[in-house]
Amino acid sequence: QEPFVADEYIERLAWRTPGGGSRGGEAFDPKRLLEEFVNHIQELQVMDERIQRKVEKLEQQCQKEAKEFAKKVQELQKSNQVAFQHFQELDEHISYVATKVCHLGDQLEGVNTPRQRAVEAQKLMKYFNEFLDGELKSDVFTNSEKIKEAADIIQKLHLIAQELPFDRFSEVKSKIASKYHDLECQLIQEFTSAQRRGEISRMREVAAVLLHFKGYSHCVDVYIKQCQEGAFLRNDVFEDAAILCQRVNKQVGEIFSNPETVLAKLIQNIFEVKLQSYVKDQLEEHRKSDAEQYLKNLYDLYTRTTNLSSKLMEFNLGTDKQTFLSKLIKAIFISYLENYIEVEIGYLKSRSAMILQRYYDSKNHQKRSIGTGGIQDLKERLRQRTNLPLGPSIDTHGETFLSQEVVVNLLQETKQAFERCHRLSDPSDLPKNAFRIFSMLVEFLCTEHIDYALETGLAGIPSSDSKNANLYFLDVVHQANTIFHLFDKQFNDHLMPLISSSPKLSECLQKKKDIIEQMEVKLDMGIDRTLNCMIGQMKHILAAEQKKTDFKPEDENNVLIQYTNACVKVCGYVRKQVEKIRNSMDGKNVDTVLMELGVRFHRLIYEHLQQYSYSCMGGMLAICDVAEYRKCAKDFKIALVLQLFDTLHALCNLLVVAPDNLKQVCSGEQLANLDKNILHSFVQLRVDYRSARLARHFS
Q: Where does the chain cross the membrane (predicted)?
């Protein structure tokens, strides 16, 4: 038995043999084990012979059966060949019979077709004779239930009558035409009644009969008319139209053989009758009296019409439904779209002017003329080159004449104009129209409002030697900066998409660049003059508050103050102006203006300190003042300004240092790179400069 392992088999045999399992032990008997092995080998040989004989017998039997099976297969193959030959013969016979049947059928059809035509012609002649006699006796004409058969007959008779000469058959032709017309009217009436009853199958039957009549189009018209009965009862004619078309689209294919034509005719009727009438009523009411309402209505109606058109695009309306619907929309709105942009520009101009005028009226302000022409241009060039105020200063009482409310209103009006322009303009005219709207925005927002405010703000800046001057131009800068951001946002969000792929893009960008550069020049000029005024105010404070005895006190041992009153007031004033500048500007402009103010502030203090002579105690007080100025300069957060005041503070040390240490101080890190004349000018401010000892040490 499998699996067979010889070693295990011998081991089992040895263990079963008495005396064969304990090799080398007392009970081990090798002779007995040998005898057992010899006997077992003999048994295996006998078994092998028996099995071999059995195998040979089975092989002989298998060969015999294989021969019998092969013989049987050969017999079956012969039978199969015979059956195949019979099948071929049968197939050929069937083909022969089929050919004969087809030939016979063709012969029968050839005989039957003329016979049918003859029968049909005989019937038509019979019916024609009835019309000749003037009395219709056939059941097909008198029985109302056979209207379908009568319609088929009269339609054929009508075609035949068309070929007959009029002089001989005028009367019968007239009778046939009359009957043709009566049947046509009956069929249309039957179709109408079936439609009112909602019998779709009857409508389909009648429509199929009418298809060959001239009045088929009238049947379609009746269907379209009855479809619209009760369909437009709500205020929203566009929604009603969409619902009606959706309903008819599901039904029309079950009734007519050309559903797309019928549906297209229904849509055309809706557009040319219902929508056109509705649009006219809505627009003509405000066309001449209220431009704002007219434009809103035009935009709303056109948008709703195009949305309805988009919904109708889902239906099968023929090959070029996009062109078909576009023509319908154009037919409704063409008279309104031709002059749309003129109405838009006219409204935008009057509306913008009204917004500005209403604002100035609320301020009780009469706009002054900025002026143009040669003299004004000359003044402008002189002012740009010299930065001097030309003409009297105007007191604006703190009013900037800039209003975010006005700006938002102007931008909102322009935004709506851009949206209408995008929707209502022809694609070829869109960039040109958008540019005209942008030009209106530039005129009223930038020129009439911002530029006017800048001119007024410039005129309101006092001269640099004015006392207690109120400086409001930074408020103008702050508001103008905010307005510029809003203006730029609308340019990018609403104008750019309309002109991005047209030549008008470069023209708009250039126009925007020019207007911004023009305003930046005026802003820079105003800021510069404002800084001059700030320095002028500091000069007035120093002149009024700084005394000569501050730095040369009579009693050197009885000085109780840490810094002078002038220093305190100047620092307070400067801190307010720094905060105001930070609140009025953003980005790099803050650092640029603060650096300019800081440099001028340093120059002022530097020149101011050189107007006095200093005792030892006065020099200490000057150092304290400069330390306070330096502390104030830290608020600028500008490295250059702080460096300038650090150097000035180091220069002030020359006012108090002992004569023996002057050279050492002058060669220090902060003063080593300064011009020797500057150092000398500060040393000369000392009260003891004239002493031979000091002069000798400094030289």
A: none
CATH number of the domain residue 573 falls in: 1.20.58
Q: What is the DSSP string of 327-386?
A: HHHHHHHHHHHTTHHHHHHHHHHHHHHHHHHHHHHHTT--PPP---SHHHHHHHHHHHHH
Give the CA distances from residue 370 to residues 342, 377, 451, 520, 529, in Å, rounded to whole numbers and listed in that order: 29, 11, 10, 18, 19
Asked if residue 333 lies in contact with residue 302, where contact means CB atoms within 8 angstroms, the answer is yes
Q: Are 153 and 143 in contact (CB under 8 A)?
A: no
Which of the listed residues 480, 515, 538 is the one where a domain comes to its end? Answer: 538
- Are residues 91 and 27 part of one domain? yes
Residue 248 and residue 266 in contact, taking contact as beta carbons nearer than 8 Å: yes
Q: Looking at the structure, tell me whether residues 495 and 571 fall in a common domain.
A: no
614 three-state secondary structure:
strand
Q: Which tokens belong to 313?
A: 């695009």
| CB neighbour list of residue 220: distance below 8 Å, 6 or more residues apart | 256, 261, 262, 265
Domain span at residue 61 reads: 8-123
* Assigned domain for 28 exists: yes
pLDDT block averages, 10 residues each, the chain of length 699: 76 76 62 84 91 93 92 92 92 89 81 63 57 58 58 63 61 64 76 84 81 76 84 83 88 85 89 90 87 93 92 82 89 91 94 94 82 46 48 62 92 95 92 94 93 90 79 88 92 92 92 93 93 93 88 68 87 94 89 95 94 88 92 94 92 84 78 82 82 52
